[in-house]
Amino acid sequence: EQTPPWWTSAVVYQIYPRSFADSDGDGIGDLNGITAKLDHLARLGVDVVWLSPVYASPQADNGYDISDYQDIDPVFGTLADFDRLLAEVHGRGMKLIMDLVVNHTSDEHPWFVESRSSKDNPKRDWYWWRPPREGFAAGEPGAEPTNWESFFSGPTWTLDEPTGEYYLHLFDRKQPDLNWENPEVRQAVYAMMRWWLDRGVDGFRMDVINVISKDPELPDGAITGTSGLGNGYPHYGTRPRVHDFLQEMHREVFEGRDGEHLTVGEMPGVTWEQARLFTDPARREVDMVFQFEHVALDHGPGGKFDPKPLDLRDLKASLGRWQTALRDVGWNSLYWNNHDQARVVSRFGDDGRYWRESATALATVLHLHRGTPYVYQGEELGMTNAKFTGLEDLRDVESLNHYRHAVAAGMPPETVLDGIHRMGRDNARTPVQWDASPQAGFTTGTPWIAVNPNHTWLNARAQYDDPTSVFHHYRRLIELRHTQPVVALGDFHMLLADHPHIYAYQRELDGTRLLVVANLCGSEQSAELDWPDAEPVLSNTGELRRENGKITLGPWEAHVLLE
Ligand code: TEU
After folding, report:
1. Is 266 part of the annotated catalytic residue set?
2. What is the ipTM of this complex?
3. Which residue lies with its CA nearest to atom 3 of ligand 1?
4. Which domains, and CATH codes, for the chain?
5. What's the rounded Cα separation, in Å, for the pair 153 and 172?
6. Residue 305: which residues within 8 A CB-CB, separation 6 or more?
7. Which family is it part of (predicted)?
8. How far is CA 58 from the centre of its chain?
């Protein structure tokens, strides 16, 4: 038996710097703002901070478009501010991982500026350049080299007039894709990663890392949706070469390095079969992956902006399948939220009458699975979706592009806006609610995106002194993972899989059983469940009602028991 890696009992906290805390009054969060708030994280008890991108960037996608990987954007501060933050994080016994965005750069990165300058520039091949489709003139509709649809709507190709060729961008046109087939590109990325590790960072969260390998033939994709564009995913999603690239990265960057590191690959569309390969320690690729199955269960026929109600049985089947799939090899990451997802309490919970109960019930269910939990800033306070009133409130490039394309295609603007209000990424990006003051304690200036009006009662200040608060519930869940080996390492077994409203499971390690049961709806529920001897350890209400082998749970009631 090997000692389990340190991250099996760790909890990660994601910071989206733009929206966390603003120290200089320009309305945008920054590094010094984060440093000033580290006691919040220490109090919560998290082990690792994942910092969304703070590199130099034109901010077309809030920093996921990088123009210099080895500098800090002035809007966030300086390298000296970064070093101070890192030292303060380490000083509190926490680790810090960086966001690694290397599927694409900004179109303003010097690599791309050179690459686009002429067809025979030495860096031309660092990106994907192709002539117009045969029989088409440059710029003509349909002249794009493939029919692929961008993650952010529209074609994945943009024409560069001076050379008459198109470049590939799976995301926005300001995010050209790097050509990972070129070994110089890979070496440049590895050198940059080593530079950050030498500076003291503890690892990386790797942005869309399963799409870095493209089929060099660039075949068209099947047309499935209504946009007229094709699905290119089979030609860039989790192709075999990704495994080669990640193994090479491991050798070039991590092998022989002292210290404890963490790598997590963000992988849209990844299956559990593929995740087993990515996270099998013997293969030396990544420690864990972010999968997307459970956050797509409420997507309707029209995709993410056409949501449908979640059926809890689907959620249990999905998360349960991943628990089983990665039980003997590999490792799960556990998340409800990040900067790309609508707020979970508004999405799968109830942000009205049962706000506190549903936020704490959802937290309980997620955190006690086997895997490493990720808390997204504000989730520990039960922050809700934004109250956007119209287009002018939105900031996100994905939502704005979607609006433009959907309305041009004839969808009623109100329908498009409704989908964006419910599912748009800006919901996750409103400022963290520190207190009840006019800008929620986030900034003394005008915030880049409006604060949620509910900060008058929903804020950190109000929760610190309330032992029943969402904050303290998260704190206790994190403490449980630190103190109970069964939480970190126990086997997982789903219970009541067919119950439409109760989420229940059991974990087991060396004769210790942990029982988790939660009612994830707003009406009383009961079920046959018999654990007469189990001792209560954590609840969001009071005592569990159990009688004659049956339990009864009020709205959003959640319990954790040990035996
Ligand atoms: O996201 C990748 C991704 O596939 C989606 O979550 C995407 O953001 C979108 O919601 C699809 O509908 C990563 C980052 O997390 C995201 O913020 C970036 O915009 C994107 O990559 C490009 O770097």
Report:
1. yes
2. 0.96
3. 268
4. 6-104+183-471 (3.20.20.80), 110-168 (3.90.400.10), 491-562 (2.60.40.1180)
5. 8
6. 402, 406, 416, 419, 420, 423, 424
7. Belongs to the glycosyl hydrolase 13 family.
8. 22
Confidence of residue 1 (pLDDT cuts 50, 70, 90): low
Give yes or no for residue 55 CB within 6 A of ligand 1: no
From 207, 336, 337, 405, the mutation candidate for ligand 1 (largest count of ligand atoms within 8 A of CB) is: 207
Ligand 1 centroid – CA 340 distance (Å): 6
Q: Which of 103, 123, 267, 112 is nearest to 170 (CA)?
A: 103
pTM for the model stands at 0.98
CA dist., res. 171 & res. 156, Å (int)? 7
- Alpha helix locations (H) across 386-521? 397-408, 413-423, 460-464, 470-483, 485-489
Query: Measured in angstroms, how far is the CA atom of residue 392 from the centroid of ligand 1?
Result: 22
Active site residue 149: no
Centre of ligand 1 to C-alpha 397, Å, is 11
Mean pLDDT of 453-465: 98
Give yes or no for residue 529 having a pLDDT over 70.
Answer: yes
- The per-residue pLDDT for range 493-524, each reduced to its tens digit, is 999 999 999 999 999 999 999 999 999 999 99
d(CA 161, CA 535): 70
Which residue type, as a one-letter code, is found at position 559?
H
- Ramachandran class of 93: left when φ > 0, alpha when ψ lies in -120 to 50, beta otherwise: left
Q: What does the H/E/C string look like for 193-261?
A: HHHHHHHCCCEEEECCHHHCCCCCCCCCCECCCCCCCEECHHHHCCCHHHHHHHHHHHHHHHCCCCCCC
> Which pLDDT score is estimated for 498?
97
Catalytic residue among 30, 202, 266, 340: 266
| Token couple for 383 | 């922050």
Could you tell me which residues come within 8 angstroms of residue 125 by beta carbon, excluding any fewer than 6 positions away? 179, 182
Q: Which residues, including other chains, have CB under 8 Å from residue 328's CB and lie 6 or more apart?
A: none
* Dist. CA 48–CA 40, nearest whole Å: 13
Q: What is the CA radius of gyration of the chain?
A: 24
Strand partners, 334: 373
pLDDT of 533: 87
Provide mean pLDDT across the span 227-250.
Answer: 97
* Alpha-helical segments (H) within 250-311: 272-279
Q: Is the pLDDT of residue 226 over 90?
A: no
Neighbours of 11 (CB within 10 A): 22
**Residue with CA closest to ligand 1 atom 1:** 208
* For ligand 1, mutation pick of 151, 295, 396 (most atoms within 8 Å of CB): 151
Is the distance from the beta carbon of residue 398 to the nearest atom of ligand 1 less than 6 Å?
A: yes
- pLDDT tens digits for 41-66? 999 999 999 999 999 999 999 999 99
Count of residues in the chain:
563
Q: Which atom of ligand 1 is nearest the CA belonging to 64?
A: 23
Tell me the three state secondary structure of residue 51: strand
Nearest atom in ligand 1 to the alpha carbon of residue 304 is 12
Which among 149, 165, 177, 207 is annotated as catalytic? 207
